[in-house]
Amino acid sequence: MKGEQKPQDVLYNHASPKQEESVERKPETKLINNDQESKILEKGRRREVCLRLLNEFSDYISKIEQGEASKYNLIMASDRARGLANFNMDDETVKWVIRKQDDMKQNLKDSIVYSGYSVSGVHFIALTHPVTKKQQVYKEAVNKLRGLENEFDFLSDVVMRTDSRSSETSYFAVDVFAEDLLGENKEITIKGVSIPFKKSRSNNISNPNDKRLNETMSIYGREVSDNLIIPNLKWNIFLFDGDTATDEIIIRYDGEDVQLRRE
Known about the structure:
Blueprint: H1 17-22, H2 44-65, H3 71-84, H4 91-105, E1 113-117, E2 122-127, H5 139-146, H6 151-161, E3 171-180, E4 187-189, E5 192-196, E6 201-203, H7 211-220, E7 229-231, E8 234-241, E9 248-253, E10 256-261
Antiparallel strand pairs: 1-2, 2-3, 3-8, 4-7, 5-6, 5-9, 9-10
């Protein structure tokens, strides 16, 4: 599929040793530096994944507390905290993670980046369009996550080109990333993506024959597929009818409704 790239920094934190040494961490942020493995109550591959997430969470928190509270760093820290909730750690570490996550929520209440983790260890990220002008501040974070300079513009263009004030149906796109943290699957087969509304759910639309959408896809070199199989570490675009904002996105996977949240 055109425009496919893995997200920047979604899998690993690429900070160099020099960069790490130059950051003066506060005592609380040093929680996992010396005895981090003793904080993790998992075994085998799950232990490795938990350690990775905990290290990355600590790194993003350190950056934020040192004044680098960009939307990207806030999103990534919040995402890692959400992932850590699926692993067993000692009580002190759990409380620390929750406290730090709570501190960030107010800054992400209008985010257009959603993420969630299944109980079996599959990580999902979903990107969607801005609804208000103040959400323009997420442009850099969205593009960096997707690894494409025009991701934010693409998602915005779908909505603008199919504006609901016209007599035709309006649409919006949700770009979904899937990662099997435990490395057991080359492909992630989902049952569907849906947007919950007050009385019902709006399910994704398969390949609508719409000239306006085709123009957007052509301009940005994207494709929409009704394929519910997402290759590991790849993205897939889903379309929905309407232009309503939402607090969560639901992905049905392995018998579970995985809730993707933005805070």
